Amino acid sequence: MAVKVDFQVRPADSMDQRQIANLIHFESYVHRHLDWRNPLDWIGVPPYLVAEQVTTNAPHGRVVAALACPPDPPQVAWIRLFVNSDRLPLKEAWDILWEAAQANLGRNGNARVAVIALKDWLPGLLTGSGFVVRQQIVMFERREGMPVPETCRPGIKIRQMTIRDLPLAAALDAAAFDPLWHNSLAALKRAYQQAMLATVAQSAQGLIGYQISTQNPYGAHLARLAVRPEAQGRGVGRALVSDLIHGLAQRGASRLTVNTQADNAPSLALYKRLGFVATGERYPVFEFQVQ
Fold it and tell me: Domain spans of the chain?
């Protein structure tokens, strides 16, 4: 008697952690969002779905694909993980998981779903499902030997960030960026815990900017720079980045990278003035509106 093989989609649970980890580490088709949380940490936060291979003689099957896009902040859901094994065709795995994820998000109200397409096989799946390109992410780097900029800015004080600054930083973040790019308070707490250097800018009006940078084998990455809207154009961002460059030089970190949106003219001008050069890396940001 032939064994019938089928696939079913269900929410991931803690018992799937090992199988999903194996897919992430060993399979070829893996998309991971640039996130402060490990993809496995999102298990249990919907929608986090797996496609499971089941047979007539083994009702509890093998996880062959997974898709996670839990909203954070509310109504903004990044595709935090999509992974697929060769046991299920790539498009079929995406289609069945995305259909289920879209239905889950739709039951909870409208949501913007976004993806930074870091893999060249991903855009075809996204456009086939109705995603559209919203903008491009561009990469910059500042290498050893560049002059260290002046840090002094009248009326602006740069100091180390503390955990008590995080609620104000989250409010500043919400005011400074489009909702798609907001960092929730929970995300900022994780970013702060992982930071190599985290500083804030203060003036007589209070906290007006912050930056969070992380360490990597080649130096450091400026992961977040935010300035309160009414303080933009007054050198706050320059002061924060200049102070960061000084701090990295004291630690012997010679290379600093950053990414920003290709249509963010103020950011592009700031980084170029401070000696950053484009690396040539560009990644499209796709978006889908769930109704």
Answer: 5-130, 139-284
pLDDT tens digits along 83-131: 999 999 999 999 999 999 999 999 988 899 999 999 999 999 999 999 9
Cβ pair 213, 244 in contact under 8 A: yes
Q: Do 5-130 and 139-284 have matching folds? A: yes
Please state, in angstroms and rounded to a whole number, the distance separating the CA atoms of residues 25 and 27.
6
Quote the tokens at residue 201: 């800018």
**Percentage of residues in the chain having pLDDT higher than 90:** 82
Query: pTM (2 decimals)?
Result: 0.91
Q: Which superfamily is assigned to 139-284 in CATH? A: Gcn5-related N-acetyltransferase (GNAT) (3.40.630.30)
> b/e per residue, 86-102, with b = 16+ CB within 10 A?
eebebeebbebbbebbb
Residue pair 260/137 in contact (Cβ under 8 Å)? The answer is yes
Could you tell me which residues come within 8 angstroms of residue 177 by beta carbon, excluding any fewer than 6 positions away? Answer: 226
**pLDDT tens column, 218-240:** 899 999 999 999 999 999 999 99
Q: What is the CATH number of domain 5-130?
A: 3.40.630.30
182 Cβ partners below 8 Å, 6+ apart? 73, 76, 173, 174
Give the integer Cα–Cα distance in Å for 26 and 19. 11
In order, the DSSP letters of 229-258 are GGGTTSSHHHHHHHHHHHHHHHHT---EEE
Please report, in angstroms and rounded to a whole number, the separation of the first and last CA atoms in the chain. 45
